[in-house]
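re: ur question from yesterday

yeah so i grabbed the chain u mentioned. its 88 aa long if i counted rite. heres the sequnce exactly as i have it in my notes:
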Amino acid sequence: MYKKILKVDMIQVEEKGFYIRVVCNKSEGVALSLYRALESLTNFKVQNSNLTNISDCFALTFTLNVRDGGRRRRRSSPVIRIIIYVIE
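ran it thru and got these C-alpha coordinates back, copy pasting raw so excuse formatting
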Protein backbone atom coordinates (compact mmCIF):
# COMPACT_ATOMS: atom_id res chain seq x y z
CA MET A 1 0.00 0.00 0.00
CA TYR A 2 1.27 3.48 -0.87
CA LYS A 3 1.71 6.35 1.54
CA LYS A 4 -0.87 8.99 0.69
CA ILE A 5 -1.71 12.40 2.13
CA LEU A 6 -5.48 12.75 2.37
CA LYS A 7 -5.78 16.21 3.92
CA VAL A 8 -3.56 19.04 5.16
CA ASP A 9 -4.76 21.96 7.28
CA MET A 10 -2.50 24.81 8.31
CA ILE A 11 -3.44 27.82 10.39
CA GLN A 12 -1.16 30.68 11.33
CA VAL A 13 -1.72 31.20 15.07
CA GLU A 14 0.97 33.81 15.79
CA GLU A 15 3.28 36.00 13.76
CA LYS A 16 5.75 33.12 13.50
CA GLY A 17 3.59 30.26 14.75
CA PHE A 18 1.60 27.63 12.87
CA TYR A 19 -0.83 24.83 13.74
CA ILE A 20 -0.70 22.00 11.20
CA ARG A 21 -2.76 18.83 10.79
CA VAL A 22 -1.80 16.14 8.29
CA VAL A 23 -4.15 13.19 7.67
CA CYS A 24 -2.84 10.23 5.72
CA ASN A 25 -3.63 6.60 5.10
CA LYS A 26 -2.47 4.05 7.63
CA SER A 27 0.20 1.85 6.10
CA GLU A 28 3.56 0.47 7.09
CA GLY A 29 6.15 3.15 7.79
CA VAL A 30 3.81 6.16 7.67
CA ALA A 31 4.12 7.12 11.36
CA LEU A 32 7.90 6.88 11.19
CA SER A 33 7.96 8.97 8.00
CA LEU A 34 5.80 11.66 9.59
CA TYR A 35 8.07 12.01 12.61
CA ARG A 36 11.21 11.99 10.47
CA ALA A 37 9.66 14.83 8.50
CA LEU A 38 9.09 16.79 11.71
CA GLU A 39 12.71 16.27 12.75
CA SER A 40 13.87 17.58 9.37
CA LEU A 41 12.24 20.98 9.84
CA THR A 42 15.44 22.70 10.96
CA ASN A 43 14.18 26.23 10.30
CA PHE A 44 11.26 25.63 12.64
CA LYS A 45 10.96 24.79 16.33
CA VAL A 46 8.33 22.11 16.89
CA GLN A 47 6.41 23.05 20.05
CA ASN A 48 4.37 19.85 20.34
CA SER A 49 2.95 17.03 18.27
CA ASN A 50 0.29 14.35 18.51
CA LEU A 51 -0.27 11.28 16.32
CA THR A 52 -3.80 9.88 16.41
CA ASN A 53 -5.15 6.66 14.95
CA ILE A 54 -8.53 7.31 13.27
CA SER A 55 -10.08 4.23 11.63
CA ASP A 56 -7.84 3.55 8.62
CA CYS A 57 -5.95 6.85 8.88
CA PHE A 58 -3.28 8.61 10.91
CA ALA A 59 -3.71 12.26 11.89
CA LEU A 60 -0.58 14.14 12.93
CA THR A 61 -1.19 17.52 14.53
CA PHE A 62 1.61 19.81 15.61
CA THR A 63 2.49 23.41 16.32
CA LEU A 64 5.71 25.06 15.30
CA ASN A 65 7.43 28.42 15.29
CA VAL A 66 9.77 29.91 12.70
CA ARG A 67 13.27 30.12 14.19
CA ASP A 68 14.77 33.61 14.44
CA GLY A 69 17.75 34.33 12.25
CA GLY A 70 16.62 32.09 9.41
CA ARG A 71 15.69 33.41 6.03
CA ARG A 72 12.00 33.96 5.48
CA ARG A 73 10.04 31.04 4.15
CA ARG A 74 6.68 30.86 2.49
CA ARG A 75 3.87 29.64 4.75
CA SER A 76 3.49 26.38 2.81
CA SER A 77 7.11 25.33 3.28
CA PRO A 78 6.65 22.98 6.29
CA VAL A 79 3.71 21.24 4.70
CA ILE A 80 5.51 20.76 1.40
CA ARG A 81 8.48 19.15 3.17
CA ILE A 82 6.21 16.79 5.12
CA ILE A 83 4.42 15.72 1.95
CA ILE A 84 7.75 14.94 0.25
CA TYR A 85 8.95 12.82 3.19
CA VAL A 86 5.68 10.90 3.52
CA ILE A 87 5.46 10.09 -0.17
CA GLU A 88 9.05 8.80 -0.37
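noticed a couple things. The beta strands are 5-12, 17-25, 44-54, 57-66. also The first strand starts at residue 5 and ends at 12.
anyway ttyl
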